[in-house]
Amino acid sequence: MIATQRRRTWKTALFLMIMLASLSPVAGLGGAQEVEENGFEVGADLTIAALLEREIVGSEITFERQLPDGPSYAQHLVSYLSEGNKIYGLLTIPFGDVPEGGFKAIVFNHGFIPPASYRTTERYVVYVNTLASHGFVVFKIDMRGHGSSEGEPVGTYYSPAYTIDAIAALKSLQTLDFIDPQGIGMWGHSMAGNLVLRAMLIEPDIQAGVIWAGAVYSYDDFTKYRISDPSSSGVITEESPSRRRGRELRAAYGVPNSEVPYWRAVSLTEHIALLQKPLQIHHAVDDPVVNIGYSRDLVLVLEENNKLHEFYEYAGGGHDINSPYFEEAMLRTIAFFQKHL
Asked: Which pTM does this prediction carry?
């Protein structure tokens, strides 16, 4: 408990120092006072300040069922706890002896898939196979409300729930004696780009992050580019938890706009000074779902703030960066994790 309190105090102090350093003498301090006085009765849990204060914990990992082996690794259906919800996932473990210090590991965060049709062992099979075949433990988690995972599928743009699930997965991996507890990274696709960057701002144990075709970093970009996902048509209803939460926030604070204190408080790019670990970004120019402008705008902020990053654009491949671009993107991803984990 003492160690946890010290850690939270350190994170809060770092946040305050960075924010005070970045504020202008008049407009910035006024915004900070407004945030403190307002308290954000709606959606306060999504603000970076609130997440820095939050204690996110994992649990022991329960091995539920052994699945058929991959070419060079074992596969298991496992579970862990996140905010009391039982969350399931696919855990791959390389064959052979455990390296000195433990295996490097990747928390693998899926993009949007209709929750009712989500299956643990479907989708992203080639992605997981490629990473696992290069010696990483890969933990592809089923976000709350997906498959057999408990909880509501509230999305990631208007709720911190999936971010908490991902960090709790990392904390749970750290309990395994064959994992290097300080050798864990995160990978995210599409909506999970938002998740990965938010998690990296608030959790120092994420050693490196990789984002493919990610979206929504400033929230101004959400207003500018929107998202066109045909897979959500007829699936995400107006009464779904994610849509309901989005309506509540827009009713309280208007459309996303960083001139508004609330949207500034939840913006990832407004808090980019908190990013301390390297980030790699991949995006196809012809992505029909997530406009490449999301990544280009993020990269401009990373460059302006001298953050360690790599950015790769692909002439084709669409939203999933399919072949013939997939292979190059994956090799770059593997090399990045090998270097930084």
From this structure: 0.89
